[in-house]
Amino acid sequence: MTLNNSTNIRKHKSQAFWLFFPAASLLAALAVPLTVWAVWSGTGWPAGLLGSGHGHELIFGFALTLVAGYTLGPQSATLLYPLFGLWLAARLSWIFQPHSLLAEILGPAFALLLAWHVVPRFSAAKKWRNKMVGPLILLICLLALAFWFSSSLYSPIAAWLPGPIPLMQSAIVGLLLLMTFMGGRLIAPAVAGTLEKKGIPLEARVQPRIEGLLILVLGSSIFLMAFPAANLLTGSLLIAAAALIAIRTLRWKLWYCLERADLLVLALGYMWLAIGALCTGIALMQGWLPAAALHLITIGALGTLSTSIMLRLAWQRSHRKPPPASEVFPIAALLAIAAISRFIAGSSPFSAPTLLWLSAGTWALAYLWVTLRLLFLAKHSKNRRK
């Protein structure tokens, strides 16, 4: 292959995040208020967002789309657009016809196809801590398949699996571990680079011992979370993980990076991981339903980290600089309001409709803003390349 042919192939590849990130943001913005509407209005529409359906879409729809955008990198149109089309068909069929065979097949099909293309990218890692990313992504994708087996009307083995809600809770702990690992790998070098410019050494960067302990503790919790009989053990492990995450964050000395709004918001998202793990652990050990505490992970941590990473990557590609404070701080504040109000609403949130609508509204506003900004930044990036 000649150099010119190789260059032309690269030119015809598109960055996956420009396609998947706006789609993920728009799904997040629409799915949550529609979930509240489906119950509050009494219409039951859209049916796919009732009960555990909204969790299914935000974990196996939204979160896996973030994984696709972040890990696929540049891809040819022959791969990117069919994969995106499969994701879109899976989302529409699940939201509007969740009990159809088509809906129950397309979702796991997207998850497995994504794993097929993403997981091998991490196989070249040498250290065991680095090798865990691929299997962890594969596990989350397989949980989408397990969710189908456990809830499908067409599955003959549903009785042999944990129910859809325990499997979903396991997937949330899987996301907790994935965000803990990848968030740490993003924050540590960025903070170290900022401090080096100031002549401040940072010895605690990746912190491999803490990272290894987190992988073991949270990896065990993923499995145990599916079995309520192990709640005391799972809760204690999550509390230990919360302490490790907090210690790791403090050792990054982020108080020396006050001028870097993007790093401060990423660190806030990382601390939401600790808060969510702590509250979930306490709920499990006290015998309480963990739904409210788990939303501190899915709203506070996933929301803050995902919006920060999407905007950070888009700004770096389009403007060669991190996003400004005027953009990231208001979004982080909206998501904090969403997380806190949903947590206060408790395990029976529809008995507190004001708090529930406040949570859904602030979440939707944050992601609508991110969607618009991503589209604008994509256009700016495209114009720069011309």
UniProtKB/TrEMBL annotation:
Regions that span the bilayer: 55-72, 79-96, 102-120, 132-150, 170-188, 209-227, 233-251, 263-285, 291-315, 327-345, 357-376
For this UniProt record, give its keywords in alphabetical order, as a comma-separated list. Membrane, Transmembrane, Transmembrane helix
- Superkingdom as given in the UniProt entry: Bacteria
Give the signal sequence positions. Answer: none
What Pfam families does this protein's entry cite?
NnrS
What's the name of the protein?
A: NnrS family protein
Protein source organism: Marinobacter xiaoshiensis
